[in-house]
Amino acid sequence: MTVLHTLSRLAGSPAALADTLAYLTPGSALMLYQDAVAMAAQPRFAEVLAPYSLFLLGPDLQARGLTAVLPATTVDYPGFVALTLQYDNVQAW
What we know:
alpha/beta, Sulphur_relay_TusB/DsrH, DsrEFH-like, Sulfur relay protein TusB/DsrH
């Protein structure tokens, strides 16, 4: 089963994020939106996020004046909805 995990809050550290990501299975995708998009602008999260297909909500990046430095696919609101339809399950954290 494929799962899209969504994170809306900024993790305080890579270790705190790793605790959450421990529940993800191989092949999971991760969608960062709201304040969580700030993690994509910080290289310190690169190693922890590298194993996952990473998606970012573009309007949230723009609203915060951020640029992603991690490899990720930026989507708009319709793209976010399309992602939820591509996966068997959506898990919000």
